[in-house]
Specification:
globular; alpha+beta
Length: 414
């Protein structure tokens, strides 16, 4: 029986929400661990179409606050302090709300396991090793990644308020969910935000057989007019590892070019890629530009592991192992555009409008810019009154709740 193909997010929901409401630039979690206010659910034709799509895809809807509370229950049950659990839950819910399911609920059991194994610290806070007016080196002290990331991005923003730019690098961190969660914090102040992290070695460099680099994501957000913004958040591999895990969990195949098996052969089955194989750099093979993704992964490693003095490259522990601390390196940047040429937001809007107004290629609908698919998914969630999850994710969450003896999250009837 042929496995269904894992498809990009905007291909799934683009037909429901043709154009995002760009003026309503929703960013979840930017109160930095305080609950996100719920959007009132009003049924309309667009909502009914969205609900029909969710139902036809075997998905269930969970209210944002219910999912956040469930995640907090799981983390506090294994000993995580309330404030750390709230930071983590806010980051994971933000990932799902944006449509990046690979880094939200999908990751919860990993954080639980790290705390249970006592390989992640829950009894301390990040500290500053050294700093200047515009820079800082932070010791994450092995805290949960979202705790470290929130601390560092706040610090970068404060420095940008004083010096025009804040550049903060840390060592001793852990997996922190999606990079955009931190970079978008800068938007509240009208700043540009950037976030980078190294990760466990899973990416195979061009012309190599073994994986020695991580997915090493990079993120840039930039404010535009009327609440609009450019939001680039991408792995430097062809795809993030979590997307393969999601396809495996759903029983779906993957496109050729995402990963290779242990022998270095391209695989459309996620299992051999996850069991001894590796991800291909952004661009795929060398003749299609994969060496550029390889170079970008190295760039992120320079900003994170090399600059921060953390583990780097093949020195980072293997994915989901507990033999030693992760000691990830991460980089957080905030830039005040007012420190440079005036009119930044206007030019940013003009550039994005120039792209969005292009005539679509044959068979396409809209030309998008980075951040538009996420806005479409957030609008869908708002219409549904919560986040739609695949049936297998709901089963996974309920099994975890049973294992930890906590109440599962209730599911809305749509």
């Amino acid at each position: 029986m042929r496995r269904p193909m894992c498809t990009p997010l905007f291909a799934v929901y683009g037909a429901i929400l043709r154009r995002p409401a760009f003026a309503a630039n929703r960013v979840i979690g930017l109160q930095h661990c305080r609950p996100h206010s719920e959007t009132n659910f009003t049924e309309n034709p667009t909502t009914r179409r969205a609900m029909a799509t969710v139902s036809s895809r075997g998905e269930s809807v969970v209210a944002i606050e219910e999912m956040r509370s469930y995640m907090m229950r799981c983390m506090t049950k294994v000993g995580t302090p309330d404030d750390h659990a709230r930071c983590l839950a806010s980051a994971l819910v933000a990932a799902d709300y944006r449509g990046h399911y690979s880094h939200g609920l999908n990751r919860l059991d990993m954080y639980v396991d790290d705390v249970v194994a006592k390989i992640t610290a829950i009894d301390c806070e990040p500290t500053i090793d050294k700093e200047t007016a515009a820079t800082a080196l932070v010791n994450g002290r092995n805290c949960l990644g979202p705790v470290v990331g929130t601390f560092c991005q706040h610090l970068a923003i404060r420095k940008a308020e004083e010096a025009g730019i804040g550049w903060v690098v840390c060592h001793g961190s852990n997996h922190y969910s999606v990079a955009a969660y931190y970079a978008t914090m800068a938007l509240e102040r009208g700043f540009l935000g950037m976030s980078f992290t190294n990760t466990s070695p899973i990416q195979v460099p061009t012309r190599a057989r073994a994986a020695v680099l991580g997915t090493n994501p990079l993120c840039l957000v930039a404010p535009a007019e009327n609440g609009d913004s450019f939001q680039l958040d991408m792995a430097t591999s062809t795809v993030a590892l979590g997307k393969l895990e999601m396809c495996q969990r759903k029983g779906e195949s993957i496109p050729a070019g995402w990963g290779t098996d242990i022998a270095g052969k391209v695989s459309t089955d996620p299992t051999p890629v996850l069991n001894g194989g590796g991800l291909m750099p952004l661009g795929g093979a060398e003749n299609t530009g994969g060496y550029k993704g390889y170079g970008l992964a190295m760039l992120v490693e320079v900003f994170c592991g090399i600059l921060g003095g953390s583990a780097y490259g093949p020195g980072i522990r293997s994915w989901k192992t507990h033999d030693r601390e992760a000691n990830l390196g991460q980089c957080f940047v905030a830039i005040d555009p007012g420190a440079f040429a005036p009119g930044f937001q206007g030019r940013m809007s003009d550039l994005m409008t120039s792209c969005r107004q292009l005539e679509p290629a044959e068979g396409e609908t809209d030309v998008l810019v980075a951040g538009d698919p996420e806005r479409e998914h957030m609008a869908l969630c708002d219409r549904l009154g919560g986040i739609p999850y695949h049936e297998n994710q709901i089963v996974y969450a309920r099994n975890l709740a049973k294992k930890l003896a906590v109440d599962p999250m209730p599911v809305l009837n749509v």
